Every structure is written in C-alpha cells, then in structure tokens.
C-alpha cells in the first residue's frame, strides 16, 4: 500500500526525488518503534527478575506457615 501511494505521488508529479529523500517521517516512526522495543525488553527483563524473587519470598512465607 505504501509503495502504491508513493508511486502514485511520483506519477502525479506531487513529489520530486529530492523531496522524498528529505522526508523524515518514516525514519522518526522507526526510531520510536525501536525505543518502544527497547523499553519492552527492559521491562520483561526486570519483571522476570522481580518475579523470581517474588516466588522465592512466597515460598519462604508458605513454608513458615
């Protein structure tokens, strides 16, 4: 779909190759997506560590009861 829109825009003469190369919207979207992925990976890593510690704590409490 993106390719067809770009081709249609070039064919209509709305954009020149120079304008297309200067358009940074897609680059910005990719950067935000990469930042979101890094945040999610960090959250999953942190939650796995906290989850392991929490399981140990609950096991200790249940064995003392």
Detailed description of the structure:
With 65 residues, the protein is mainly alpha-helical. The protein has a domain at 23-64. It contains three helices and no strands. The radius of gyration is 25 Å and the shape is rod-shaped. The mean pLDDT is 77.
- Helical proportion? over 70%
Specify Rg, calculated over alpha carbons. 25 Å
Instruction: Give a quick account of the main beta sheet: strands, pairing sense, barrel closure.
Output: none
Distance between the termini: 62 Å
Shape category? rod-shaped
Short description:
The chain is an all-alpha fold.
Show the helix and strand layout.
Blueprint: H1 2-12, H2 17-22, H3 25-64
Protein name: Pilus assembly protein Flp/PilA
Keywords: Membrane, Transmembrane, Transmembrane helix
Organism: Acidocella aromatica
